[in-house]
Design brief:
Structural class: mainly alpha
Number of helices: 3
Number of strands: 0
Strand content: under 5%
Oligomer: single chain
Radius of gyration: 16 Å
Largest sheet: none
Length: 95
């Protein structure tokens, strides 16, 4: 069975969206904790894959994976296991 390039692009895009849904639930859950090294490595890996999709001209998978990389970067910042957030929380007293 052979599928078209457009169908393959939609399949990869759909897989990326599914991954993002689960990552967003982790980001929105105040009690969630993810080891920082794991989320940073996942964000880096997704960034590399996004560049690959961009070079190949697959824009939907590129967007899906790039958004996933941003979400995992935010997980690394706001959901660490050590409770020490990166960013403005340690610089400015934000309530």
């Amino acid at each position: 069975m052979v599928i078209s390039a457009a169908t393959a692009e939609l399949l990869v895009f759909s897989g990326g969206v599914i991954l993002e849904v689960f990552a967003v639930t982790t980001l929105l859950d105040d009690t969630a904790q993810v080891p920082r090294i794991q989320s940073i490595m996942f964000a880096i890996a997704l960034s590399i894959v996004a560049v690959g999709y961009w070079v190949l001209g697959l824009m939907l998978p590129f967007l899906s994976v790039a958004i996933g990389s941003v979400i995992w970067t935010l997980v690394a910042i706001y959901r660490p296991t050590d409770g020490k957030y990166l960013g403005l929380q340690n610089i400015l007293p934000i309530e």
